[in-house]
């Protein structure tokens, strides 16, 4: 799995990045990479690139929003990347916020989007799964709204047959 390979590479001091041409690049101490590790990196290149992108994005968000130093942000981002368990993409289950379905994480009784870092789905007490954007909608007391008097409207101009059109202004 790519997450384990990334952890092994980090333990050897190997730093992965994505270059300006969109290729996976690495910086490694002398002797840190053997042929076996290079082959594994090639075989899991796409998965490693996804993890590196998520790591960079998460570190930047934590650095900016959390006011942490880059080193502290990278430590937090690494913990976020190393710990979550991603679920396989499920038909019909995408994040209602960012519309991504490839980064759903099992988290706290539901599914959290690893892309926009918001709760996407929640399991209710009956075990059904519910979209979180529907849960967060504002509940309205319809009876209260219906019982409110309708404000009076003053018509400032009328359009009668044969007259030129004049604007209707409501004050």
UniProtKB/TrEMBL annotation:
<dbReference type="InterPro" id="IPR044894">
    <property type="entry name" value="TubC_N_sf"/>
</dbReference>
<dbReference type="InterPro" id="IPR041464">
    <property type="entry name" value="TubC_N"/>
</dbReference>
<dbReference type="Pfam" id="PF18563">
    <property type="entry name" value="TubC_N"/>
</dbReference>
<protein>
    <recommendedName>
        <fullName>TubC N-terminal docking domain-containing protein</fullName>
    </recommendedName>
</protein>
<feature type="domain" description="TubC N-terminal docking">
    <location>
        <begin position="4"/>
        <end position="49"/>
    </location>
</feature>
